[in-house]
User: What shape does this take?
Amino acid sequence: MEMKRRSGSTGRAVASATRRQLPVRTLQSQVVDGIGIGIIGGEFPPGATLPSDAALQERFEVSRTVLREALKALSAKNLITSRARIGTVVLPRREWSLFDPDVLSWHFETGPDIAFLRSLAEIRIGLELESVALAAERRSDAQLAVMRACVDGMAVAANTADFARSDLEFHRTVAEASGNPFMASITGLVDLVLATAFTISSPVDDSEARDVTVNHHRRVAESIGARDAEAARAAMRVVIMEGFDRAAGRMTAE
Amino acid sequence: MEMKRRSGSTGRAVASATRRQLPVRTLQSQVVDGIGIGIIGGEFPPGATLPSDAALQERFEVSRTVLREALKALSAKNLITSRARIGTVVLPRREWSLFDPDVLSWHFETGPDIAFLRSLAEIRIGLELESVALAAERRSDAQLAVMRACVDGMAVAANTADFARSDLEFHRTVAEASGNPFMASITGLVDLVLATAFTISSPVDDSEARDVTVNHHRRVAESIGARDAEAARAAMRVVIMEGFDRAAGRMTAE
DNA sequence: AATGTAGTATTGTATTACTATTCTGCCTGT
DNA sequence: ACAGGCAGAATAGTAATACAATACTACATT
Assistant: This one.
């Protein structure tokens, strides 16, 4: 029995403006995405047993090799667990690797609800406020210069993608300046929030809103520049809440 | 390249016979652990190219199927990336899924340095202070009762394991009371790894230190009981810093 | 020298076969 | 009739082989 060759039509939407694109979509990544979205999106809820290897093989039209490597990847992200004769079952949500870029992008593609976004905002408040306070103490002059450049980049961005890129780069630089490697792990989370917030309404279009956003970021940068940890905390809180409001407001508006 | 049939399968049979005593350990997980520890521990630093499939196959004495599923798992944790003809290269540290349970535990198995422990403590400060503040607002009476019971459990614990269990349960309950499911997931993970890594350094032996620790926890619980978010923050900070000091002191002492 | 092209080494995918695990149900002995 | 064990079946785990796709190397052609 021969597997039919499929053409490279992936047709997958861009998950995020800043997500790096691999030159080639491998078969495995397509299957990983397919099942991952099925899990996050509720087709396979926690506790459910996935179809057997044979069934999934038929569904995605791939060999068992590809299918099993895909399942192994999902297993590594703590989405599923497999046992012989038992089957492959979806783990409870609490086990999932929340910070994983793929898991986050699948949330995005299946449409995050407002409670999800609020939870993310709370985590950002916790981590990024600590991160920015540490950055205020530990940052180098070069890092401060990068932050300022990012703010300027936001101010002059010609389109939403450029704006989001500068925005994300700003947060990444702050995380790096904190000197704590774990802080950088939440950039994927920030990425998702930005992508959600900017999907339709981008502050690039509205010059007034854009000025507000840019100024909030600039206040963070200058607080870090002044090595004022408390001011940096306060300014970062405003930035995060504003991002949440934009994403949430967009959802309730429709 | 080719595996010797006779001796190969014989060796495998013997190996699996000894493995059968620990039924949950699959071949793949051993390879994942082996390479994962090699990466975290510095044998394969970021940017380095891993040995080829064939070489790794020989090193771990497994089939290519098992090896490749193991590599797929590491790839899913963003530790490595593979491309045809290029090889499998270790990604920069910033890409790693540091919050992954396996990656965290590999850090401890390869001997965490004090900077790593400090980073974890900073993460706990960020997350658990926010968590406990939310818990002070949102907690139910039942949850408060559980917290108090945990503190009592710490006070009367007969051994290290019981003490650690009550300690862990306390922090988990606080995280749940925050109403943020992801907060519970992340803090639970970090706390669990820390607890299992340092079960030795519990203050059970030293009754004076034990009283101090228990009282600090009790202050957290009572601040939550009084719905005083700021007091809860302050008390939790003390708890976390004390835990860090004990772990760090233990490292430098030996 | 620039460019193309064949060779080659490495990962990606497919296929088949077998092993290990454990659930289901029959079957045997009392 | 019932308990216990034994055989079969279903499913994931592992092995082995073959070929495809990719991209580096080196040589050949212009």
